[in-house]
Write a structure and sequence with these properties.
Number of helices: 10
Radius of gyration: 17 Å
Largest sheet: 8 strands, mixed
Structural class: alpha/beta
Order of helices and strands: HHHEEEHEHEHEHHEHEH
Helix content: 25-40%
CATH topology: Rossmann fold
CATH class: Alpha Beta
């Protein structure tokens, strides 16, 4: 049963963020809507500006929780908005669950088109993996979830060290926009809109092929990738982006776990301070990583 707090959050998102996105005409309009989101980081977590592999970002650490793994985090925002600061509720929650987190402030479109974000993620990961003592992981949400999967493909193809495991929260994996839930969940999704999504697709791709696996990892070959957990809500327009990518990974022999939460909004783990559903999803993700890294 969906918690009362989750119902209230769905209602609030539908009447604020979703309305703002529906009115957005340009990538900068979308950026303003996304960047207006408030973050509620957990207590007892520090956020320290830094660079890693020449890429800016911030270290996220919880003094009271010993870190048993290092995590590279790639924020969402449609490749046009948001930042490590907007995602502190998620990165801080990972820190509280035993990870030293580096949140990447990768370059955004339309100022920096594909593959700028992927280049930044690759550089940051390479530096993190070289310096990390013990297991190292990568995670991301929405566009950052798609970027997480693209990073795995890129690392494998370049012959670079792979993460021990990965987390993809509501990943955007198909910039060709072929998923059936893009339309079937258009009214049910409390947060995202499908109409006009091509605006940010074009802003990010800058003329690149929408089916390039490094931009749309749905179309990639997942052979040889590390274990991946997919987490998504069943009302999301990106539900099919998660389910189809997870199926491709399974078919390629990748260890996968797919978690589909009932009546939860896009990247519902943002609300881990407020709803039991989001806390449970964060616990599942952390347990998955700890289990692989043990």
């Amino acid at each position: 049963m969906t918690s009362l707090r989750a119902h209230l959050i769905n209602f609030a998102l539908r009447h604020t963020v979703k309305r703002g996105l529906a009115k957005s005409k340009t990538p900068h309009d979308v950026r303003r809507v996304f960047n207006s989101a408030r973050s509620f980081p957990p207590r007892g977590v520090t956020f320290t500006p830094a660079t890693l592999g020449g890429v800016p970002g911030e270290w996220v650490e919880a003094a009271a929780t010993p870190a048993t793994g290092t995590l590279l985090y790639l924020h969402g925002g449609g490749y046009v908005g948001m930042s490590p600061r907007t995602h502190r509720a998620i990165t801080g929650a990972f820190a509280r669950r035993g990870f030293r987190v580096f949140a990447v402030d990768y370059r955004l479109a339309p100022e920096h088109v594909f593959p700028a974000a992927l280049d930044d993620a690759t550089a940051a990961w390479t530096a993190l993996r070289a310096a990390a003592q013990g297991p190292a992981f990568v995670a991301g949400d929405s566009a950052g979830g798609g970027l997480t999967l693209a990073l795995l493909l890129n690392l494998r193809d370049m012959g670079l060290p792979l993460p021990d495991a990965a987390i993809a929260f509501s990943p955007w994996t198909d910039l060709a926009i072929t998923g059936g839930t893009m339309q079937s969940n258009a009214k049910r999704d409390p947060l995202l809109v499908s109409d006009g999504i091509e605006t940010i697709v074009h802003a990010y791709l800058g003329g690149a092929d929408a089916r390039n696996p490094l931009a749309s990892p749905l179309y990639g070959d997942y052979t040889g990738l590390p274990p991946i957990l997919f987490s998504v809500g069943d009302t999301e327009i990106l539900l099919d982006d998660s389910l189809r990518a997870a199926e491709r990974a399974r078919e390629a022999g990748v260890v996968t776990k797919t978690c589909v939460a009932h009546d939860m909004p896009h990247v519902f783990v943002f609300a881990n301070r407020w709803t039991p559903e989001a806390r449970h999803a964060m616990d599942e993700a952390a347990d998955f990583l700890h289990g692989v890294g043990a």
